[in-house]
């Protein structure tokens, strides 16, 4: 499995994780590296308070989620346009023997890897089968920063799942954009 496939997008990562779990398990057998600790967001150095967002802001967040879901399930490369130009993406894969292996990507690298990944017919098929759970949305009030929202959700398919955590903000046009994304892909436990 190539690095570009495993970290292409939240659910493209999910597709890659499914393929990884179906493969020989080489990732799970890797020795721990220097990038196993959970990454800290670059924007966590302020005091924050979570509150329920106003209806208008929550509606914008649900539209962003809906747009993301539609673009991801159809393997639409314009998915990248939902991310801020300065977005940071942390893509993690939970290892069977413990720990999470993370990659940190900027938007340009993420866009390139996503474009490569969605050319794979297997990835397109996996993206179409993704089932999304409704997001939890909180308004973040950070001292000295613009209004932002925290969104968290899970997505699944037959053998794998992904946990997604976004920080989103309004852009200059008033639309919401993703500026910080943390994902962790994991193998679903088989039912016995």
CATH class: Alpha Beta
Encode the helix/strand succession as letters.
Answer: HHEHEEHHEEEEE
Molecular shape: globular
Count all strands and give the number. Answer: 8
Oligomer: single chain
Describe the structure.
This protein has 192 residues and is of the alpha+beta class. It has one domain: Roll (Nuclear Transport Factor 2, Chain: A), CATH 3.10.450.50. Helix content is 29%, strand content 33%. The protein contains 5 helices and 8 strands; from the N terminus they run ααβαββααβββββ. The chain has helices at residues 3-6, 10-22, 55-73, 107-117, 121-128, and strands at 48-51, 83-94, 100-106, 131-132, 136-142, 148-156, 160-170, 176-187. The chain is globular.
Structural topology:
Layout: H1 3-6, H2 10-22, E1 48-51, H3 55-73, E2 83-94, E3 100-106, H4 107-117, H5 121-128, E4 131-132, E5 136-142, E6 148-156, E7 160-170, E8 176-187
Parallel strand pairs: 2-8
Antiparallel strand pairs: 1-5, 2-3, 4-6, 5-6, 6-7, 7-8
Helix pairs in contact: 2-5
Brief account:
With about 190 residues, the protein is α+β, with helices and mostly antiparallel strands. The chain is about 30% helix and about 35% strand.
Keywords:
192 residues; disordered N terminus; Nuclear Transport Factor 2, Chain: A; alpha+beta; 29% helix
């Amino acid at each position: 499995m190539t690095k570009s496939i495993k970290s292409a997008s939240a659910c493209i990562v999910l597709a890659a994780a499914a393929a990884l779990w179906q493969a020989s398990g080489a990732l799970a057998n890797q020795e721990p590296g220097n990038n196993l600790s959970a990454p800290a967001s670059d924007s966590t150095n302020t005091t924050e308070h979570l509150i329920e967002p106003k209806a208008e802001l929550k509606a914008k967040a649900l539209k962003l989620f809906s747009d993301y879901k539609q673009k991801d399930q159809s393997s639409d490369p314009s998915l990248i346009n939902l991310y801020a130009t300065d977005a940071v993406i942390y893509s993690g894969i939970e290892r069977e023997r413990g720990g999470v292996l993370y990659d940190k990507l900027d938007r340009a690298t993420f866009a390139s890897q996503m474009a490569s990944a969605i050319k794979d017919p297997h990835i397109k098929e996996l993206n179409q089968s993704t089932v999304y759970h409704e997001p939890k949305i909180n308004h973040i009030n950070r001292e000295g920063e613009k209004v932002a929202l925290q969104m968290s959700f899970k997505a699944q398919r037959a053998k794998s799942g992904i946990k997604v955590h976004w920080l989103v903000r309004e852009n200059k046009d008033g639309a919401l954009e993703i500026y910080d994304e943390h994902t962790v892909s994991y193998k679903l436990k088989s039912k016995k």
